[in-house]
Amino acid sequence: MDAGVVIRQQVAVVIVVLAAAVLMAATTAEGFISGKTWRDVRRVNREGGPFVGLVVPNAYEMDPVLKSPSFSPSHTVPYLDVQGRRFRFGTIGGQNVVMVMTGLAMLNAGLTTQLLLSLFKVKGIVHWGIAGNANEDLQIGDVTIAEQWAHLSLWNWQRHGDGPETELALEAAGDYTRELGALNFSDFHTVVGAVGGGQQGNTLNSIWYQPEEIFPVSGGGGGAPEQRQHAFWVPASARYLAIAGEKLEGMALPTCVNGTTTCLPRAPRVVRVSRGCSANVFVDNAAYRRFVRSRFGCSPVEMESAAVALVARQLGVPFLTIRSLSDLAGGGSDLGNEAAAFLGIAAQNAVDVMLKFVPLLAGDHHHADD
């Protein structure tokens, strides 16, 4: 065989091997994230960070942002797809943002927020969406900004026969507490037919509300790990609350559903409220609505914000939640089938407030919570 042919064949083999090596290097995974994705992450952090992280539960709450002229997608890296989530990059009013949709409920919201903060340089989080209303002083369409959030679906379910004075299982070990109170099912239903013709307590007994276990990062991430703390009420950023109170009060919001004659009794308002409550429960029950309002002082009730708040609390990142009321939880208002009728206006109101708030953070360079 001609020597030149042999050399060309050898060169071709080398090229193939090198190409395969380059391909493998480009796709080699570090954990479940590829090397290429890590390079893209480093690039967007270098070119665009620090970002305001925008966290939204559902597509119908995100789509109005994508269609808004206020949101300008990045021309270099418009998005990155990581582990089933799409992180969208752009600007709102001069502020660089990274936006991600979580999906429904606490697990999705917590996982997605943790992934956002683990991957990207984020100086703060703004979370928005719709919510049920537990505060009858407010109206559908009002946009609430809660000072603190709690997760209400972590329980210690007490056995039948035990009372409020009975120590809970594992309470002595510090795992559970009776300090936050309980819902006793017998307060809402009793069983007739007890011995002597009286009434006996409901065998479901009581559920005692519990704080979350958290493991906050300290000392710039260099503190001792596995230092357990408990958190029930998680405060929003005092700095973000002050900005919102100064700049958003009196903001004009639409009274009627777009393109229809379905209108609210008055123009919606941006309202700062004391407490919001989240759970892995869609609350459409008036009795439970009244209970959580009287026991915990909740105004918005929904399924994600407390998870976002808890992750932000653990990592020391400031956050604010903007939730527009779509219905009186459990019904009872004079507006009929509230959630179906007013979903659109509630979602748009939350988006409008978020779009006005985010540019106010363009000059804010704090990277830790207050």
TrEMBL record:
Residue intervals of the Nucleoside phosphorylase domain: 52-358
GO MF, any single term: catalytic activity
InterPro entries (alphabetical): Nucleoside_phosphorylase_d (IPR000845), Nucleoside_phosphorylase_sf (IPR035994)
Residues spanning the signal sequence: none
GO BP, sorted A to Z: nucleoside metabolic process
Name of the molecule in the record: Nucleoside phosphorylase domain-containing protein
Native source organism of the sequence: Eleusine coracana subsp. coracana
Gene name of this polypeptide: gb27232
